[in-house]
Design goal:
By secondary structure, the protein is of the alpha/beta class. The chain has 17 helices and 12 strands. It has a 7-stranded mixed beta sheet with strand order 1-7-6-5-4-2-3, with helices on both faces. Bound molecules: pyridoxal-5'-phosphate (PLP).
Length: 424
């Protein structure tokens, strides 16, 4: 099936007489006839549902659809994008381990890695992703367990050189995890360029209507855990909590994603709710149409902003001359670059605040990649915990404005931006 067809028919395949729309199975539990059947489920010897903290039929269908869209062997829908990021790394790391992360990341991710993971005893080194692989090599340690980056960085919009970073990770015997939130699998399928694990905040374009917070984790099935058994013993040694199950033996290519569910979703309890999975599925049904229009509208807005005399700098990979333009041509569908634009006004932080406060239709919201246009000042909100140095590292000017262009008639969006720029 082609991409747009998978968006509609992937995952849920109704049989004769069953509902055409994905049913919401709003049930915590599932009834069985014998203790033997339940025991097999607990030992991971049979597939099935027994408790919605671990798996649920509605969520399972959406996981199958997203795995198909990304080209992975399996997926887990989580309660938030943050939870997906947490699980993606916890499935690989324990106290005493180390991760190399690209510094151009979502502020919440930087905080999760730099503060919470550090508290757990996992150290993160944030590196400038634009340095050469030879320079980046020096940051790897014997205890490094993963490399982490974003396809299109939030909010700098820098596009990651996925193939190059994947090679760097693989040369060091570790998987490459990528946050594909802004690109969505419609614009980029990182697995095709060598990423091993893909995650999303489904809160953004996948849900698409700003209804539910959620995340997803997808396993490519391509990383060879057995070949790196010294680094990842938990994949190749018996898990006593499942009567000695060896994930690579029992589940082959799906070892990572099964282990993540069996150990971490079980223990931490952050599966997406069936209701929210239903919303994500509904959003995905129209993802190709929406992404096309976001990209078209944002390019029009980016061109308008780039030629405005109050705008000092603008980042949008779809613009010719943008620092990420060449990478966007390589990694994003037809070079299309999502609806997110980052720009700085000549008047800096104060002019930015006046601009945002003068907007009438475009809303000031702590959100991005939304169906309605919205703006945010990252330095005072999503990236507020960062020091000026970390801000600069993440590619953010203290006066940067993040604009998420929605699906309104683009002439209305530009008219609103224009009048607010006049006030700035
Ligand atoms: C929003 C966002 C997250 C966090 O997702 P939540 O659903 O808010 O937990 C992670 N990565 C990126 C790129 C995001 O934009």
């Amino acid at each position: 099936m082609e991409f747009a067809t998978k968006c509609l028919h992937g995952g849920y395949e109704p049989k004769n007489g069953e509902p055409g729309a994905l049913p919401i199975i709003q049930s915590t539990t599932f009834k069985y006839d014998s203790t033997e059947q339940v025991a097999k489920l607990f030992d991971l010897e049979a597939a099935g549902f027994f408790y919605s903290r671990l798996a649920n039929p509605t969520v399972d269908n959406v996981e199958k659809k997203i795995a198909a869209l990304e080209g992975g062997v399996g997926a887990i829908c989580t309660s938030s994008g943050q939870a997906a990021c947490l699980i993606s790394l916890m499935n690989l790391c324990k106290a005493g381990d180390h991760v190399v992360a690209c510094s151009n990341l979502y502020g919440g991710t930087i905080n999760l890695l730099a503060v919470t993971f550090k508290r757990f005893g996992v150290e993160i080194t944030f590196v400038d992703q634009n340095k050469s692989n030879a320079e980046l090599q020096q940051y790897f340690r014997p205890n490094t367990k993963a490399v982490f980056g974003e396809t299109i960085a939030n909010p700098s919009t820098d596009v990651l050189d996925i193939e190059r970073i994947a090679k760097l990770a693989h040369d060091n015997g570790v998987p490459f995890i990528i946050d594909n939130t802004f690109a969505t699998p419609y614009l980029c399928r990182p697995i095709e360029f060598g990423a091993d694990i893909v995650m999303h905040s489904t809160t953004k374009y996948l849900d698409g209507h700003a209804l539910g917070v959620g995340g997803v984790l997808v396993d490519s099935g391509n990383f060879d855990w057995t070949a790196h058994a010294d680094k990842f013993p938990e994949f190749v040694e018996p898990d006593e909590s499942y009567h000695g199950c060896i994930y690579t033996k029992a589940f082959g290519k799906a070892a990572y994603i099964v282990k993540a569910r069996a150990q971490l979703i079980r223990d931490l309890g952050c599966l997406q709710s069936p209701q929210n999975a239903f919303y994500v599925n509904l959003g995905i049904e129209t993802l190709p149409l929406r992404m096309e229009q976001y990209c078209k509208n944002a390019l029009t807005v980016a061109k308008f902003l780039a030629s405005h005399d109050k705008v000092k700098a603008i980042s949008y990979p779809g613009l010719e001359g943008d620092a990420s333009h060449a990478l966007a041509q390589k990694y994003l569908r037809d070079g299309k670059s999502s609806g997110v634009i980052s720009f700085v006004l000549k008047g800096g932080r104060d002019a930015g605040a006046r601009f945002i406060d003068s907007l009438k239709m475009v809303s000031l919201e702590v959100h991005v990649a939304d169906i309605k246009s919205c703006v945010l000042h990252p330095a005072s909100s999503t990236h507020r915990q960062l020091t000026d140095e970390q801000l600069a590292h993440a590619g953010i000017d203290a006066g940067s404005i993040r604009l998420s262009v929605g699906l309104e008639d683009v002439n209305d969006t530009i008219a609103d931006l224009k009048q607010a720029l006049d006030q700035a």
